[in-house]
Backbone:
């Protein structure tokens, strides 16, 4: 089955799924990779790689609400469902003069860029800084952590996390059609003479990926993690194997656990490949 054919099957399956006849939530449910595979494979068999390609196709056409996070192997996405454009494309597919899924998509209407609510202390000057950083087209990774910890050596931790992300970027740049991408890795820190949170929020808003070490459940780090989640940034929480357990309200996040100041992560080869998927996804967003 081709990518477009499978994409159409997924679109229809998402649009027609209902928990009971007359379900008002029809077409508005989301699925993880395993659930989606089970849903569409009732009629035809599709491998995880084929499903990944079809999801990328639908996402590139702007038809999905999609969340990505670690721990989803062999799928390259975390959770997907149709957005309003996806449901509209389904309606066009079911019209008497039936188009393909490619021509069923409609040109995206122009909407002025929408910003999240302005954080305390943020001004138009700071928004301009965010816009300028994003316009550089570089993959931006930020990291928040407790300065001194019994769970890790700070310099080793930061150096190893940065090295792992740069390895992931090198892997992406080896792709023939990828086009070289650069990365900026930034440790979150308050700005001199400014409100404590202003520079941190600026860097989070401009980031593609935000890493937070929660081994100590440091209040500032947890606040930064919450801000990144609220602002829609891809978040990677990490912690030492002997570190504190995450609080219950965020325990559902995918956590990466490490030993010896991030020298090695649990499921280390898989961890590196999932980092590569995160970086590749960020790079493709910049290309789009």
Residues:
């Amino acid at each position: 089955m081709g990518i477009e054919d499978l994409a159409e099957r997924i679109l229809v399956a998402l649009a027609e799924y209902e928990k009971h006849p007359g379900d008002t939530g029809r077409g508005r449910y989301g699925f993880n990779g395993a659930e989606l595979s089970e849903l569409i494979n009732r009629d035809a068999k599709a491998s995880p790689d084929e499903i990944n390609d079809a999801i990328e196709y639908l996402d590139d056409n702007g038809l999905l609400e999609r969340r990505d996070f670690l721990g989803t192997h062999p799928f390259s996405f975390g959770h997907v469902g149709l957005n309003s454009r996806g449901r509209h494309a389904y309606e066009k597919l079911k019209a008497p003069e039936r188009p393909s899924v490619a021509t069923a998509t409609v040109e995206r209407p122009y909407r002025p860029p929408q910003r999240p609510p302005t954080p305390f202390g943020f001004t138009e000057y700071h928004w301009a800084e965010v816009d300028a950083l994003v316009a550089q087209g570089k993959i931006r990774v930020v990291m928040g952590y407790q300065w001194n910890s019994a769970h890790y050596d700070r310099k080793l931790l930061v150096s190893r996390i940065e090295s792992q992300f740069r390895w992931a970027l090198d892997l992406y740049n080896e792709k023939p059609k990828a086009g070289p991408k650069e990365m900026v890795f930034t440790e979150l820190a308050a700005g001199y003479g400014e409100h404590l949170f202003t520079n941190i929020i600026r860097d989070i808003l401009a980031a593609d990926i935000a890493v937070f070490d929660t081994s100590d459940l440091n209040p500032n780090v947890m606040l930064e993690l919450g801000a990144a989640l609220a602002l829609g940034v891809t978040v990677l929480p990490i912690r030492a194997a002997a570190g504190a357990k995450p609080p219950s309200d965020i325990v559902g996040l995918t956590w990466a656990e490490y030993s010896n100041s991030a020298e090695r992560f649990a499921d280390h080869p898989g961890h590196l490949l999932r980092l590569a998927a995160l970086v590749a996804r960020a790079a493709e967003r910049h290309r789009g």
